[in-house]
Amino acid sequence: MARPTFIDFVRYQWSAIPPLVTANLAGKTVMIIGANTGLGFEASKHFARMNPKRLIMACRNPTKGEAAVERLKRETGFESVELWIIDLASFSSISRFATKFEEDGGRLDILVQNAAIATCEYQETLDGWESTIQVNNLSLPLLALLLLPHMVRTGREYGTIPRLVVVGSGVHYWANLEKAVLESGNILGTLSSKKYCTPQVMAHRYFDSKLLNIFFVRALNDRLPKSPESVIVNGVDPGYCYSELRRDFSGIRALVDWIMERLLAHTTEEGSRQLIWASVGGAGAEDKLRGGYISRSKVCEVSDFVLTRDGVTAQDNIWNEMITVLVKLDPKVQRTIDEFLVT
């Protein structure tokens, strides 16, 4: 799909919001990363009303998480909800989280990776990566690959098709990875380096991170066994919504966003419907969802760049670089690759 114009964006935001799709989740386990606020919290409420056996709400802040759990119980009457703590700015936190789930021994039917950050300032994590690249493009894949074996086993043992949902964005259409970066031999390292991350680069860092999310979804799908019973992995665009994601904006950028929200933004509940559709929608046509980019409750075409030869090459190179990094962080990633993915 060609890069949409601003008029296209306005038309999209003003178009009708599809209704909420529902499903019977009895006996199933749903996990939402970034569940204490915004889209994640609204999606959690929708899932709660579908009566899963377990609803795991994962977030970084215990106090905010506990408040969100209590609010969800009040508003839905659902009690089988658990708060799990994870810090996506810490690789060790992710490994501990995955180990806890491994020891828990339960099934995992739906994993919604909703957490992300959007900052225009260069910030380095304690692990040595630029914060957006780590949180949006390394931590979420690390968690996905550590939990994937549980999802595969769930499908085999219970005769179901688990789904891994990565929350993306239509801003990936505007992403622009420079040729020099793509040919650097170390794409992720270059994108993360302080030298490269000038104010001009950081101004569109969130856009680039959402493009990398699309690459991850497609690359992982390419490496899953081609079987109707395989885990479904997809990406979803909730649209431009009221959100705390942009809470760190300041100055002119914050003012423009404030105006745009009041003119164009969907509510967080409306946006969350897309997360639900990606998780339980499309019944009877599941194969179309595999590796798909979902918007307005249907599978849509990704950006033209993703489909070009250069885009496909970039996707594979970034996957290989990412795996090299993640295997060093947690050897269990290599086990997932060897046992559950194909070349």
UniProtKB/TrEMBL annotation:
Signal peptide: none annotated. It holds the Pfam family adh_short. It comes from the Eukaryota. SUPFAM superfamilies: NAD(P)-binding Rossmann-fold domains. InterPro entries: NAD(P)-bd_dom_sf (IPR036291), SDR_fam (IPR002347). Keywords: Oxidoreductase. The keyword Oxidoreductase applies. The keyword Lipid biosynthesis does not apply. One of its GO terms (molecular function) is oxidoreductase activity. This is Short-chain dehydrogenase.
